[in-house]
Amino acid sequence: xxxxxxxxxxxxxxxxxxxxxxxxxxxxxxxxxxxxxxxxxxxxxxxxxxxxxxxxxxxxxxxxxxxxxxxxxxxxxxxxxxxxxxxxxxxxxxxxxxxxxxxxxxxxxxxxxxxxxxxxxxxxxxxxxxxxxxxxxxxxxxxxxxxxxxxxxxxxxxxxxxxxxxxxxxxxxxxxxxxxxxxxxxxxxxxxxxxxxxxxxxxxxxxxxxxxxxxxxxxxxxxxxxxxxxxxxxxxxxxxxxxxxxxxxxxxxxxxxxxxxxxxxxxxxxxxxxxxxxxxxxxxxxxxxxxxxxxxxxxxxxxxxxxxxxxxxxxxxxxxxxxxxxxxxxxxxxxxxxxxxxxxxxxxxxxxxxxxxxxxxxxxxxxxxxxxxxxxxxxxxxxxxxxxxxxxxxxxxxxxxxxxxxxxxxxxxxxxxxxxxxxxxxxxxxxxxxxxxxxxxxxxxxxxxxxxxxxxxxxxxxxxxxxxxxxxxxxxxxxxxxxxxxxxxxxxxxxxxxxxxxxxxxxxxxxxxxxxxxxxxxxxxxxxxxxxxxxxxxxxxxxxxxxxxxxxxxxxxxxxxxxxxxxxxxxxxxxxxxxxxxxxxxxxxxxxxxxxxxxxxxxxxxxxxxxxxxxxxxxxxxxxxxxxxxxxxxx
Length: 635
Known about the structure:
Blueprint: H1 3-6, E1 30-33, H2 34-45, E2 49-52, H3 59-65, E3 72-75, H4 79-93, E4 97-101, H5 105-108, H6 111-119, E5 124-130, H7 146-150, E6 156-160, H8 166-178, E7 184-190, H9 191-195, E8 197-200, H10 219-231, E9 235-239, H11 241-245, H12 249-259, E10 263-265, E11 280-282, H13 290-298, E12 301-305, H14 311-314, E13 325-330, E14 344-347, H15 350-367, H16 372-375, H17 379-391, H18 407-417, E15 423-426, H19 430-438, E16 447-448, H20 459-469, E17 475-480, H21 481-487, H22 490-496, E18 502-507, H23 512-521, E19 535-536, E20 543-544, H24 559-565, E21 569-573, H25 579-588, E22 594-599
Parallel strand pairs: 2-3, 2-4, 4-5, 5-7, 6-7, 9-10, 9-12, 10-11, 12-13, 13-14, 15-16, 15-17, 17-18, 18-22, 21-22
Antiparallel strand pairs: 1-8, 19-20
Helix pairs in contact: 2-3, 2-8, 4-6, 4-20, 10-15, 12-15, 13-17, 18-19, 18-25
């Protein structure tokens, strides 16, 4: 056998960097490869779990990763699963989530979860391998400019071609991802940097000129916000996900109870204020509670806390809350007045803003300056709000056939039977809105979903990441049959890595939310939204399948068999009489993942609804039912 065969290729051996004249070895640093430096850096940054899949350019990092006693690597089945799992981990733990992929298609498969994390302000560090630095720009095998591709959807990104830069870059990435407005950071490392000889020294400080997030609010702006609250007759505290990111839920409750003002929590903020609290009037937005939507529309003051006035909340922007002044507090100055002009802009961390605002409101009250409405807890305003809450309660109709399951009923029972402290991850679509409406949202940090990007396939890997980060908690993924088929391969990851999540498939045999829009706006022409083998009548929307029930047909794939093939327990529920028993059975299984295929009827719709592009005043409580807000009494 020749020496050429026996010896490792030069490209796989650590490459020493030439020392410049007069340079001496650093006696306080440890000689390592760039790959070893990367693993040590992750350890020092506090990462304990990495979700990823190896490939050629990232492969050098996987050898030392095998020896780490502080970092657990979870081998996923698709890079998108790695990204969403890192997001679920971050949302459940409050720490930075980490995912890893190789160059080219491995890196580009992370684009969706990176965009998702960017939209929802999730602290994420994505590490990708890159072709050797000498090959960058040559269209080398599996080369993709992932730094350029992700620049618009990351908080910051790095291209590392020098092994000496790895510890500093990792430290800075974790700092940027987790401070200010959280978000994803990409580290792209060339293969030769991972293979090169270097020394490891963890930086004791980070030096990032120009990156100085403002956390302390301006006292003058706080005093003006308190003054407006005191003068207001119909205020609303509009709470966004930033309050959860700042861990400011106790401070929020203090301010709310001090002022007596109503509280609305966005889809991303559910759990920031207890859903059962008498001052909580619900979730605003396209599928929000009528009372919450009306509260914003009829308010004279909106105090926005860590919220961004996105289109799903405001509806047609020029018709949103026409009589309201706006106090907008956010850690990200770019969000303030971006969509709605802020009369009082406040840049700062939500916790510090809430503490300062509560103190200022208290001082105002001691001085006796607030108006009568504020001093007495806004009684006239609450009479209106309570009338809307009573008249337009959350609810749903059961199917005419008593043998059919209602999707809302399934989700409601899962929420009521779940163990205390259960974490819920949701996919995107009808089931997401029903989960927002009918699950209990009492505790912060127990509800995760893709709000800004609306990513189908989010639920299963996000639940996996949440369970990996919080193994002591029960974790349910509420998914649709369409979403489930995008990322269900990660159930194999769960089964092989002792991550026993529970998955509820709300199986209506269709792309439910798209079908709802087709029903309402496209003359019930259900083009390409049927997911089973039934034949759909384009005029009536009825579906013919195998069996006596026109809704059931033959479901392809069989989710029970599919789940069992991936090492999970597969269950099916088709009848309301067996609903609680099957949910209890799923809750009792904790040694393997459990998947329950809930066969629900396909005609259920999500109500209330504000049609896209219309004013929130056009909200429909149900089909052809427009709420009466007593418009003549607005002024």
